[in-house]
Amino acid sequence: MTHLRPSSTPRPLGQSQIAVSPIAWGMWRLAGEDIADARARVEAALEAGITLFDTADIYGCDTPAGFGSAETLFGQVLAEAPALRQQMILATKGGIHPGIPYNSSATYLTQAIDASLRRMGTAQIDLYQIHRRDFLTHPQEMAASLTRMVEAGKARAIGVSNYGIHELDALQAFLDLPIVSTQPELSALRTTPLHDGTLDQAMARDIAVLAWSPLGGGRLAKALHPAAVMIADHGARYGVDITAAALSWIMVHPARPIPIIGSQSPGRIARSIDAYKVEWSRAEWYAVLEASMGERLP
Length: 298
Fold this sequence. Notes:
The protein is α/β, with parallel strands linked by helices. The chain contains eleven helices and twelve strands.
């Protein structure tokens, strides 16, 4: 019987020439003022072979430090250890601001990427993403703004986050550059991208899938949902925890989603690569999907 197993081999980020790891580290919970502690998390990810680092300007807005603080803390780490920047692919996002809430106008995005560059102390962002669709900005305006970013050398490649397939189509229609990535919420408890065309579109167009909240917002780790129980039991057969098993369940899909892990524990970050140890038969994989859906497949 054929078993599916995630590959640990780096791959191109969509149609770009940027090579990335099959697992990414996300900074939506990077907070505080302890630079040494933040650096330990960054180095733990790099030591685990994780090279794709994902953040956003809005990360930290729910902390006392406020909007932009996750990028600022990350920038302080890079300022203390500049050599780290050369070991990673840096992705960030813009377009959300509390109280607006969405703005992807040309003026706003120009200001947003410049501010992100300053906060992180870097000359270029490898992947710049529109964080969420702004319904009040024409995709042609967004496309022109994103193109100028790349032409100015501020970004190497562009992507989208939380976009539907038709929204991505509309933006790509006005771009000569490829949209190299899309970032949906995807986990064994959030399987919508399997059904709404997101993963199909990604495979058809060679778009990288960056899966946010791959542990269902932490709900999988509690192992209370029937799908979580199955994943935990499956992981135990390979000597790994439920986190690694849950990541592997996502990763074996042929779209090769890249889960963005959000752990702030160096130890848990290091253990994320246990996902490469886990194999799935088709029957086992579909059993988890049915448990997640709460119904049998036809």
